[in-house]
Design goal:
6-stranded parallel sheet, single chain, EC 2.5.1.25
Length: 234
């Protein structure tokens, strides 16, 4: 657990809470590393990968405490991942240090349509550039837009925009738009773009296993009902 930046952030957020955080399924006895019910724990299958790319997660308020959060999976697979809580009025100095690291090229991962000229927008990692630092705004779509608009320290950084045409396989939470993808799906696509193919494949496997085990603990989830209907029709 100690090398997972999101779990460390979760501990900090819980410590300052004035009331218990009750996520869905809060009565379940959970593994405190993967946050899944203990009988569905995935810690034994966790893979560690090294990558040229690095991720910096800027997380909205209670996001690190949610068992359904997938930013945590990035930190599972890539131990160099950094995670910070977002605040509109107070910015963590360590976050500012991370994005100003002279050895890396920072990119704010967000749709190009939200970047106002003359802000640079990239869809590929430029050949010969510094290793990328992908800054990911982790929250709901509305929360991510708020972070994008109200984080002046990000305004002068280039945007990295992904065209992820395949539909999302997340299904753990309902997306506000069908083309939206969860944090870990975007991260896997970014790793592929940056040439970190083994890390991308490992992260995708970890996400697939997490999703399977997460849903296994929710027998009343609509996906189970859909599967049952399909089996009955065979």
């Amino acid at each position: 657990m100690s090398d997972n930046a999101v779990l460390r952030l979760r501990e900090q957020r819980l410590a300052r809470s004035t009331r218990p955080f009750l996520a869905r399924g809060s009565r379940a006895i959970r593994c405190q590393a993967c946050l899944l019910p203990q009988r569905h724990c995935i810690c034994a299958t966790r893979e560690i990968h090294q990558a040229n790319s690095r991720f910096c997660l800027v997380m909205f308020d209670t996001e690190p405490m949610k068992p359904s959060n997938t930013g945590r999976l990035i930190a599972d697979v890539l131990p160099d991942t950094q995670a910070f809580l977002w605040s509109r009025t107070e910015t963590d100095p360590a976050l500012l240090d991370a994005i100003s690291d002279p050895s890396r090229q920072p990119y704010v991962v967000f749709p190009a349509s939200f970047a106002t000229p003359p802000r640079q927008v990239f869809t590929e990692v430029p050949e010969g550039s510094k290793p990328p630092l992908f800054i990911m705004l982790d929250g709901t779509w509305n929360e991510a837009r708020k972070m994008f608009r109200k984080s002046p320290y990000l305004d002068n950084l280039p945007v990295f925009s992904l065209d992820v045409s395949a539909s999302s396989g997340y299904i753990l939470r309902e997306a506000s738009r069908p083309e939206l993808h969860c944090t870990v799906e975007v991260a896997a696509a970014l790793l592929e773009k940056a040439g970190d193919t083994q890390a991308s494949a490992g992260l995708s496997r970890h996400f697939t296993h997490f999703r399977t085990q997460y849903l296994a603990g929710k027998p009343h989830h609509p996906v189970h009902q859909l599967t049952a209907k399909n089996e009955e029709s065979l």
